[in-house]
Amino acid sequence: MEGGGRDVIIPRMEQSLIRNFSIIAHIDHGKSSLADRILLLAGAITQRDFRDQILDDMDLERERGITIKASAVTLYYELEGKRYMLNMIDTPGHVDFHYEVSRALTACEGAILVVDAGQGVEAQTVANTHLAQRNKLTLVPVVNKIDLPAARPEDTAMQIEHLLGTPAEDCIFASAKTGQGIDDMLAALIRQIPPPPGDAAAPLKALIFDSQYDDYRGVIVYVRVFEGTLKVGDKIRMMGTGDAYQCNDLGKFMPRPASVGSLSAGEVGYIVAAIRAVSSIHVGDTVTLAARPADQQLPGYRPPQQMVFCDFYPGPTTQFPQLREALEKLQLNDAALTFQPISSDALGFGFRCGFLGMLHMEIVQERLEREYNVEVVQTAPTVPYQVLTTDKKVVEVDSAGELPQPNYIEEIREPIVKVDLIMPSDSIGAIMKLSEERRAVYKKTEYLSADRVILTYEFPLSEIIYDFYDKLKSATKGYGTMDYEVVGFFPNDLVKMDILVNNNKVDALSVIVHRDKAEVRGRAVIRKLRKEIPRHLFEIPLQAALGSRVIARETIKAVGKNVTAKCYGGDITRKRKLLEKQKEGKKRMKMVGNVEIPQKAFLSVLEVEDEG
């Protein structure tokens, strides 16, 4: 958004000539390359401007080769003498950005389903297809990368038929790299996807599906207009918060920002209204006119369910207010992130943050450091749990420190996820063994083709968030993929494991574990702590305990000081007297001395997870 939009004359479009569509696929199946090719073909960019991942403008996206944010672009395309307006949204493929995809699909009437001709149908292909079908979208199946030597387009088309129930011959064979089949794909898209509904003369209803903060222009709001018309100069109202603003600028991305005079029913664009209060804008809210408001809000989005929690504390070069401001601005652009202030004896003031998954957590941390220049110290991630108390109340907790006292707990429930694992059929044995080790419950096996299979399991979420994906890739020689969705919270034999340092409980190190794994986990944690906590002048016992029962113990030996060094002769009783005095002093120090636990010791618990 640097420098604002450029003024262009965009003619008012008949609604019947507008198509709103999304591109969905598994990660690495060529969504962004296909979006680049469509931009080139529609004349939105020239051959000179053409480069890989043109819509992925975040440095992180380009470095990792993945899409993190959905991008909305308006294009024009001529077919059979008519000029159509195509509003395209390129979406992420990774399971952690599932919420980003669900928001994008709400703004569309159809979607291009892209499948790699070499890899075939994979886990996120299945998940995104079901998501699109739940939103009642028209799907246009495209088999991409047909120019590759390993491409098997006919086999892939048969897998799509098995998945969607659409005839294999309806699939469009294309190559985003060479441009082959892209014209056929756009023609199919225009013929099959219906034009958007909505009355341009009705009171304004525009859905906020994304937003970002610009230092010069304030909050930039991305909207899909469902009813009515919005013009520059209109006074708008956010129906959720009730805040009113004057609309200074309207525009579309083509793919660079271009100012327009108005946005009508069926169109996608952005609003600039000098919005400085970050708290005024909520993704899923409805924008209406202050003078002629709509009678009710659009349904919006169901709130995202955070599945991984960890604490962010300011690093050595960052102040607490800086971290809060950075999180508030980042939340505008990432609606799935949540945070609330907390404090810790060991690490000071910080925030308990909620994420959709481990990759989401990594991306947020990197974006905070790169885009907002804040340094963060991160604690070990945990998953949320539900506790049924003895008075029949259900309490949700996201750290062991929040658990009620054991005599008030009737049962602890952990999040269970349904996991679809897609792999070559010769890897079934290795994956079944890996799944059993992670407390998984087998559900079903389904064959996509003679050599590709879907195994469905139910896993405790805590068993898969750390390193399960890496182990899956190793066991399937890189060909395995996974997708998961939360099915609910179910009771299990879970216990709170306390870590005691010098007989004092350290809340920040407490964890919730399955009783069968508590001893192994406890030994691993205190072994790690023994290496990280420096020796003191007195002996320090380290213990892992379930309630009052100690299940593992290590001891950090005291630093030895030679108090008899000055005795160079004389009676032996003199030496004994000094040694007894030292012994008494150490005993007294052990009772009153404080143990300094370095920050690194708190983070070492995370490394225990990595070691399994």
Protein topology:
Blueprint: E1 6-7, E2 18-25, H1 31-41, H2 59-64, E3 71-79, E4 82-90, H3 98-106, E5 110-116, H4 123-134, E6 138-144, H5 153-164, E7 172-173, H6 182-192, E8 205-214, E9 218-227, E10 229-231, E11 235-238, E12 244-246, E13 249-253, E14 257-260, E15 262-264, E16 268-272, E17 286-289, E18 308-314, H7 320-333, E19 338-344, E20 348-355, H8 358-371, E21 376-378, E22 385-389, E23 394-397, E24 409-424, H9 428-437, E25 441-449, E26 452-460, H10 468-475, E27 481-492, E28 494-501, E29 504-505, E30 511-514, H11 515-532, E31 540-546, E32 549-556, H12 572-592, H13 599-610
Parallel strand pairs: 1-14, 2-4, 2-5, 5-6, 6-7
Antiparallel strand pairs: 3-4, 8-9, 8-17, 9-16, 10-15, 11-12, 11-17, 13-14, 13-16, 18-20, 18-21, 19-20, 22-23, 22-24, 24-26, 24-27, 25-26, 28-29, 28-30, 28-31, 31-32
